[in-house]
Each structure stands twice: as C-alpha cells, then as structure tokens.
Amino acid sequence: MEKQSTVTRIVVRKLETETHLDAFPNRLTPMDHTLGLVDAGFEFNSAFPPVLRPHRHVDVVLSFSYSWDKDHLKILKKTQQYCAVRQLPFPNIDFSKFEGEPPREVYVFEDEENPDAPIVVHFPLVNISFKEYKAPGVKRQGKKELKAGEVDVSTASSPYVTSNLTYKTEDFQKLVDLTCYNVSNNLDSTVCALERALNRKGLAGKEK
C-alpha cells in the first residue's frame, strides 16, 4: 500500500511540474526571462477573444456573463462589434428584438447564413424560476426552501455586487446553487445547440 502511495505522489508531482507555466519558461517565451499574462476578459469583460481566434474553428460557445450590467446582452453586443472590426465570424444578432423584454435564463444565437459563425449559448446572471424551483421540475416547499430561492443578483444591496470581493459561506453556496440550476434547467438548449453544430458538419447520428 505504501508503495502505491509513493508512486502516486511521484506521478502527481511530475504532472504538476510538467504542466506548470513556469516549468519550461524558455519554451513559452524563448527570448524573454519573464512570462507575461493577460486576462482573457481584458477587452470587454468576457473571454471571447481567445476562443474566437480563426484557427480554433469553434462550433459552439457557452457564454457565462456574470457581470453586474443591467443589460444582460451587453457582453454580446461588444463581442459582435469586436468581431466585426476584426472580420471574425460571429452570429449576426438583432438586439433590438430583446429591448423591453423580460430577462431570460438562457439565450441561443445562431447565424444560419454564416455557417462559420459559432452557435452561442448565453447564460446571464439572473434569478427567475429558481425562486420557485429548487431543481428543474421540483417546486420549493415550505418557508425554508422558499427562503433559499431568494438570491439577490440585481439590486445595489446584493452581496454579489462587483465592489464586494468576498462572500459569506452561505451567500457563496446560494450563488453556486443558482448558477448550477440555471444551466441544468436549460440543458435542452445546450444539447440542441450541440446537435445543430453536429448537423452543420454532417456528423449527427453517426457512430464512432
């Protein structure tokens, strides 16, 4: 047993060493002694730019926008502008259709006229059906469960405002539960997007 434990520790240590950014700095930046890193969301608070690089040939993008903007599609508007300037394929979204509309738990955008543009499945930070359901199809019962559904992600008094850098354990768990629920409750939207991407490539229904 001790032998297996020692081997495991050696393997883990080797993996940690070989996958660490500083393990081979000369291979990452051969002409520099230091490695410069940039936040993937530096351009407009979302990590679209590295994903949309042309050689990646991305089919589906799962976008999780948890910024504090009242406009839940603002990130996508900026992404569309960014791609237009750089001639990168991105869905041609008519945002005017969503003006004055109540927020949704998920948005799916596909440009049928441009097959090179990825399908975008966009999850904003909202609390809609989670208030009444603790799991997809499972309604909350009693005061305690209803209280658990009261997760404030929209007002100035919310514990999740941008200026609040630390959360209480309870608030952290509530945020995890809410975001997990939103994804699970809209799993069909994600699966459908993946299926459409496969259809585009003529791979739907094919066995390995």
TrEMBL record:
Record-annotated PLA2c domain positions: 1-208
Q: Work out whether the entry's keyword set contains NADP.
A: no
GO-annotated molecular function = calcium ion binding; calcium-dependent phospholipase A2 activity; calcium-dependent phospholipid binding
Q: Which UniProt keywords apply?
A: Hydrolase, Lipid degradation, Lipid metabolism
What is the residue range of the signal peptide feature? Answer: none
Query: What InterPro entries does UniProt report for this protein, alphabetically?
Result: Acyl_Trfase/lysoPLipase, LysoPLipase_cat_dom
Q: In its UniProt record, which GO terms are filed under biological process? A: glycerophospholipid catabolic process
- Does the keyword section mention Kinase? no
Q: Tell me where on the tree of life, at the top rank, the source sits.
A: Eukaryota
Q: Which GO terms describe its cellular component?
A: cytosol
Q: Return the PROSITE patterns for the record.
A: PLA2C (PS51210)
* Protein name in the entry: PLA2c domain-containing protein
Task: Specify the species.
Answer: Hemibagrus guttatus
